[in-house]
Design brief:
- This protein is mainly beta.
- It contains three helices and eleven strands, in the order E-H-E-E-E-E-E-E-H-E-E-E-E-H.
- The strands form four sheets. It has a four-stranded mixed sheet with strand order 6-7-11-10.
- Strand 6 and strand 7 form a beta hairpin.
- The N and C termini lie far apart (105 Å).
């Protein structure tokens, strides 16, 4: 008999390792919806790929359009294609996102705006205390360094911007109105509608 045993001159030694340029199985893309909180902390998900359900991990800091590649997970066998998870972050009721930075409105009282004070601010990482200086204006923005989203590539986190929203008291009556009128007579405030 011949040394190869088959007489055809071909030898098989199991599957060949995938090399550059070798066509592998078809890549698959799966869209994954996440809340902003899940994108902040990272998240695990079950995704359906063909007839299989896979548990996949999404890193902290993903944003809408991020592509997470899982090599060889689009099928079974040595030549399986890659699975790409395309993330979509749902809009949030409180925070708006710009890259790794977050912005939120921060309601404060008239007294806090005029006299200053310490106010609690909820961030995605927990509650922090912000010192409001006296004379704080409507729409003024304060930066909370490192309180934004984790950066997907690179170290650290973005910042959170707290935009002040002064909440005025309701209708004043009787002594309240008189006290307000007396208070306002004591304040020198130029007409803000006059251009300087």
């Amino acid at each position: 008999g011949s040394p190869t045993g088959s007489g055809t001159g071909t030898r098989t030694s199991g599957p060949t390792p995938r090399s550059r340029g070798t066509r592998h199985g078809k890549d698959v893309e799966v869209e994954v919806d996440l809340s902003l909180e899940e994108a902040f902390r990272g998240s695990a998900r079950l995704v359906q790929v063909g007839d299989r359900r896979l548990e996949v991990k999404l890193p902290a800091g993903v944003e809408t359009g991020s592509k997470v590649r899982l090599s060889g997970k689009a099928g079974s066998g040595a030549d399986a294609g890659d699975l790409y998870l395309i993330t979509r972050i749902r809009p949030h009721a409180v925070f708006t996102r710009n890259g790794a930075d977050l912005t939120r409105d921060l309601p404060i009282t008239l007294g806090e705006a005029l006299l200053g004070g310490e106010v609690d601010v909820d961030t995605l990482g927990g509650r922090v205390v912000l010192t409001i200086p006296s004379g704080t204006q409507q729409g003024q923005t304060f930066r909370l360094t490192g309180k934004g989203m984790p950066r997907l590539k690179g170290a650290g986190s973005g910042d959170m911007f707290a935009r002040i929203k002064v909440v005025l008291p309701g209708k004043l009556e009787g002594r309240q109105r008189k006290a307000a009128e007396e208070f306002l007579r004591q304040i020198v405030q130029p007409n803000p509608r006059n251009k300087a």
